[in-house]
Amino acid sequence: MSSFPFLSLTIFLPLVGVAFLLTIRGTDEIVARNSRWVALWTSLATFLISLLLWLNFEAGTADFQFVDRVEWLPAFNIAYHVGLDGISLFFVLLSTFLTPICVLASWTAISSRVREYMIAFLVLETMMVGTFAALDFVLFYVFFEGVLIPMFIIIGVWGGPRRVYSAFKFFLFTLTGSVLLLAALLAMIFEAGTSDVPTLIATSFPAQMQTWLWLALFASFAVKMPMWPVHTWLPDAHVEAPTAGSVILAGVLLKMGGYGFLRFSIPMLPIASEQFTPLIFALSVIAVIYTSLVALAQEDMKKLIAYSSVAHMGFVTIGIFTATMQGLQGGVFQMLSHGVVSAALFLCVGVVYDRMHSREIAHYGGLVERMPKYAFVFMVFMLASVGLPGTSGFVGEALVMFGAFQANTWVALLAATGIVLGAAYMLYLYRRVIFGKLEKDHLKGILDLDPREVAIFAPLVILVFWMGIWPQPFLDLMDASLANLLQNYQEALAAADVTKVAGAVAGK
Amino acid sequence: MTNAMTNFEAAAPELLIAIFAMLLLLLGVFRGNSATRFVTWLAVGTLIVAGIIAIPMSGGYVLAFNNLFVVDTFAVFAKLLIVIAAALALILSMPFNARAGIDQFEFPVLILLSVLGMMMMVSANDLISLYIGLELQSLALYIIAAIRRDSLRSSEAGLKYFVLGALSSGILLYGMSMIYGFAGTTSFIGLAEVFSGSDGAAATPSIGVILGIVFVAAGLAFKVSAVPFHMWTPDVYEGAPTPVTAFFASAPKIAAMALFVRVMLEPFGELFVQWQQVIWAISVASMILGALAAISQTNIKRLMAYSSIGHMGYALVGLAAGSEAGAQGILLYLTIYLFMNLGTFGIILSMCRQGRMVENIGDLAGLSRTNPKMALAMGVMMFSMAGIPPLAGFFGKLYVFLAAIQSELYVLAVIGLLTSVVSAFYYLRIVKLMYFDEPAEAFDQPVGREISGIVTVTTVITVVFLIFLQPVLNFAGQAAASLFAA
Q1: ipTM
Q2: What local confidence, expressed as pLDDT, does residue A32 receive?
Q3: To pair with A368 at 20 to 30 A between CA atoms, which of A391, B112, B300, B411?
Q4: Domain that includes residue B301, residue range
């Protein structure tokens, strides 16, 4: 723990890269080549600095670390206040880890307006890291909303044929949810007199007010998550976004919803959170089963993975709202695991899409004959998505199920059917794309992974096995924060019960 | 405080502008249109000096000319915004006017005279001085709207603006006469005393006073083009020459809004409960209409007209809150609006092909390929107007809604936030045209040093505004406080 502002550096270093990108001069060819390298080095440097955060992170305390605080708007006690705890640390790492991978994945796939593309990604990285690191609600909102601008541009400029529709749908869905979050945020500032997150967590809001605030927060986080029935923007956005856009969308952006529940809804509004737990369970179970069935019927690979994301996020919300230690651990772990696995699956789709320019499942078949390395990589991630023991997916799902059984057996039972369906659609996808005879003529010349692609997938494969076989280093760091969260939650509920009983007694 | 020295000191910026307007007029008459450029730069200089003279007056409270005229921090803040807006609009107008053959020396002189009127408006402390300022401003504006005499559309815009403006002045005057009739004074201070009287007048003001206030509010709503008094805006914006539209959308709006705030909060502050619903209703109506009607526009100037109607609706949210925080929010909103608006009009002014202006939104298609810098600037402006953080526009909205929530206007806040999503749609459509669509024919380049300079400056301000937010907010806070201290 040094006083050097490592965290702020992690947040703003990508913007330094942007400044470099803006100064590049020369022909289109030179600009494109230099932009790629600048973006790669910037994002790698950012990743290395964020690794320092991990190495210097002290386990066993729920306090915020690497805190930087600069007064910004003293009138409303709004400050530039950032810091990390066991929950946010890994989301920051996930963001910085996936960005260089995205840059590499776009190395050849993006050939037009490369400079703008790389600028958009680096700005996006700043916004993502800032979202997870912000300890001030207004600052959080600024980063959280700021994500929309680069993502809108990425989908709209470099996306597929229906990119305009998808970009608008993505933007407007998210914005609608977010403005309600803003309304709640303003109300909370007035109730507590500050937008400082630790102070807001310590403030107990009146029960009546909590209900409204919770619903407003829910509107935003549920869209971002996305939960059924406001998930419909996701398949469109995923299908039309360029590969790296899908990777970031699935890998990081979806986690902002879950992170929002963990950081804001549950600790700040415990009474309402408990009150609405049945709603969350119901929507999550519907999401798990319904979107799994929908995924089974998809003809487009990206759409299938998009629907599987909705289902997996259903597990996350179940885990978080079980309000048990295992459930919370599982929810966070499942988010991290999904961040790696779904990102990797989109990259897998990107590999064949770059070669054949089609995402139709029917377009492929028997790829194992020409692409053994690819078949192996795809299999690893497919099985991780299914939750095979030994992969990261298993740990998350298992912990969520432990938590769910303690909270509500029916929820656990129904969620478990989702796991079975998940295995069904993933295996079915894998069979149709990889196995069988290579009969289609256009696939006869398809090439296996090149060194660049191997370099992209290698860290992801390692991470999936590491998280699956030895998850303890991850869980250790987040335990103290989650335990603290849970304890505060239960104390708040107990206190609310006491007042309720006291009120009832006084009423008599 | 009635000695002559104080009077002239308090009105020094206004006097400076008045004198220089005359001098520049003489200069123009003697030298002819060949001196237009020189006269314009001199006018810009005058505005800047007037602004600099005004700055030290903040923090004080000076009444002059038998309490007709007041100089407080609020007036100084509004004057600075007006001066900046007018100076930027004048600089923007130069290349266009030269190209369009309307580079007459009268243009900067008329702008100076209208600025004089606006400065009178924001310093008015009496219904009469209010009216004089308003009329001086309006008369100059009517002529500027029609300055392109040989253009049918420009003349039509001028005429329409004149007829409707005269109507609104009539309504305003009628309301003022009613208030005078029922309260017996036209002085803001006197009115405030009457309405806060211990005889219970504040609790139940007579119906005549309420009617008078509603008429005054309607007249002022005309000037800020709030729904349902907005009909002139799109036609005038479209018809007037583009630099004139840029000016119309900035300085007069700011002046009228500042005046609106002062009139409602100072003399009628005690009757807040009576007029709050009126402001609430026109604010909601403006936000909704601004959002919905802009969607189907194809002319960029008409779109900006509806956008400005919407923006005025957001600013009025702060007035509906009726609090110090609300007034502060409005001033912040106007500051941000000024830069976004002039930047956007700078870009619209550079939409030119083979020497002819084009105004269709579709003409922006593929701008990111043909002129990436301009597209970036326009993109920043559009996202900022849509209120997406971290750009400036977000903070304007943040503070007016903060004030609304503080005054427990939850419904208003939620309606406002939701309409901002609808309006995001048409701002995004422009971004979509510029970035997602195939390029149309490129615009003429270069666009002129003046325009590109202003576009650059306003874009940078919009992007980094969050760093300078605190000082601006502080100043706006002091200005709002001075309004309530009186």
Answers
A1: 0.88
A2: 87
A3: A391
A4: 2-485
